[in-house]
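INFO  loader      accepted 1 record
INFO  loader      residues=426
INFO  predictor   begin
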Amino acid sequence: MDFNEDFLHFIWKYRLFNSAKLVCKGGEELQVLNPGILNRNAGPDFSDAKLIIDQTVWVGHVEIHVKSSDWLLHGHQNNAFYDAVILHVVYEHDSPIYRTDGSLVPVLVIEGLFLDRVLDNYKRLIANANHFPCERHISSLDQIHIYSFFSRIVIERFEQKAEEVFEKLNNNRGDWEQLFYCFLARNFGFKVNAVPFELLSIVTPLHILSKHKNNALQIEALLFGQAGFLEQEFFENYPLQLQREYLFLKKKYRLIPMNAAVWKFLRMRPQNFPTIRIAQFAALIVKSSQLFSKMLKKDTLSDLYTIFNDLPVNEYWLTHYHFNKTTNRVIVQPGKGSVDNIIINTVCLFLFCYGKYTDQSELSDRASDFLERIPSECNAIVNQYSSAGIDVPNALTSQALLQLNKYYCNEKKCLNCTLGLKILKK
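INFO  predictor   done
INFO  writer      dumping tokens
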């Protein structure tokens, strides 16, 4: 069979079967008054179903399997909770099923009760080799339905990411400033150097940097030193100054630097080299102490951008990508795309999380508002949906597409997707 239980859940939930005259395997006439509520947690598949079996009204659970014997395979016969199952819906009946008291569970065989086109639509979605299952069909859907669904899964994306934020918040005793600093550092590394940057934020705690917030050279020395980039011989004045400062601070705070080998430079544009990103990150720390508190006070996107504009990056980096290696003039300010990436993935996330944590819905709403005002991200995944006919006007839409692709399309969970369901039912 080219389908699983999810497909049968879909058929049962939306009653996509010929219900003119349903008869259970034992000859009992069946009417479905209410198919029940789909349960995605442990326990029977549908709860609170309301059925008429042989003129008797039943309210309870419905369990669905491809084969009747799957009940035994899953061990339900040993679980008294399944005694409340009033109907067993299967595609193939290969074994009678009994409750723990010995009574027989009524079974409806659904094979032949639904239209072939429903299964054909399902197979075309699941088995095709397109970039995503509904690539050839998604443009035919009503735009209102598409963007309504996108709004919901952006919140779903926030909720999933919030789990990590709250877990780490609990581990660092509720220090939002330190937590935001760690997530911001990870974002400064983007995908390639995200892990080394996060490690840098851990081995260089914010409370140490805060003690030197009025001394840019010491902030830079701490970050470059802890990143492992000052463990070499220098010939230029600036890195020599950094090295001297770091040796003093390293001893004072008993710091242990990272191994510089963890940082990645290969196949990257020089503007994205970790040395340049650390210089920018240091400048941001110098420019704005208590970043998290300041971010919360920025209620417009233009005000938020001022935090990341005109960073006081040391002039040494105007002519260097590496220490001891000069080059032509370098752009040291983060580009608009980089700043947008940081706002999307760190600032908006923390606005949502802090709003939820403190029950300030206006902060969570602000996160969504910012996403609607930021241009769409441009990457291979977003481009696939754009090429299929989806208009991607802003970051809220592109974030929704990333969520859709990762948790629905890649997993072929069309039956859990509002868009997939609409296509299947057409």
